[in-house]
């Protein structure tokens, strides 16, 4: 469906969500949309993505920021990545501990010297309840100047080995943004890193395929290759078309545009 810019799309992670309260997740999504969308007044799509994700990191509801799951040694290591489509600027962090990993990724992007920094930040933070089935968070945005941005943040896989880095801070895998499209993914990082669904959607869009068709094709290929219960994604293109898909039990998500707002939980292929 096509929306009037500026547009902000977010997700709270694809997964089973068996132990999660639906109402709390949707409330956190609405707060994220409000906080992120406010950035359009003075900032670009990049700032909208950062603030929307930071809001979800702060909530403690999702597997990101305060809600991050623990690794096999009982510690917390977080990953996040951010990309600005107009300049292909990227900032990513891996295996860090911070209240807002997406802000750390934003710092890397603004500095412009490197793309991915690992194990550079260890903040003391008050963690939330990470016993739920919350998952990776992400956002994509289109501002009134036509610029696209994408970002993703996660605490990784519960019980992972220390030092494990998933797809979330890797451009083309957990997130990607160009002048054509912005994508944020969620799911099993070890699989996403092998197929690079975010990059594949951009390639199909560059070949002239509509966004919905591109998303369905990539989701179909991923599911055919690796089975189900492993991927969800949101996508937004330069024309304001938005799309979402997942092959898991649910993927809380929402969209806010110049004219309205919607949130979803387990409704398949709706945005």
* Average predicted confidence as pLDDT: 95
- Counting DSSP H or I runs of 4 or more residues, the number of helices is 6
Radius of gyration: 16 Å
Determine the N-to-C terminus distance.
Answer: 7 Å
Name the beta content range: 25-35%
Note the topology:
Blueprint: E1 7-11, H1 22-37, H2 45-59, E2 78-84, E3 89-96, H3 101-111, E4 116-118, E5 137-142, E6 148-154, E7 175-177, E8 181-187, H4 189-195, H5 197-206, H6 211-226, E9 231-237, E10 242-246, E11 253-257, E12 260-264
Helix pairs in contact: 1-2, 2-3, 5-6
Describe this entry's structure for a reader.
With 271 residues, this protein is an alpha+beta fold. The strands form 2 sheets. It has an 8-stranded mixed β-sheet with strand order 4-3-2-6-5-1-11-12. The chain has a 4-stranded antiparallel β-sheet with strand order 7-8-9-10. α2 packs antiparallel against α3 and α5 packs antiparallel against α6. The protein is globular and about 45 Å long. The model has no long low-confidence stretch (mean pLDDT 95).
Summarize this entry quickly.
The chain has 271 residues and is α+β, with helices and mostly antiparallel strands.
Sum up the structure in keywords.
single chain; 271 residues; alpha+beta; 8-stranded mixed sheet; 4-stranded antiparallel sheet; 6 helices; 28% helix; globular
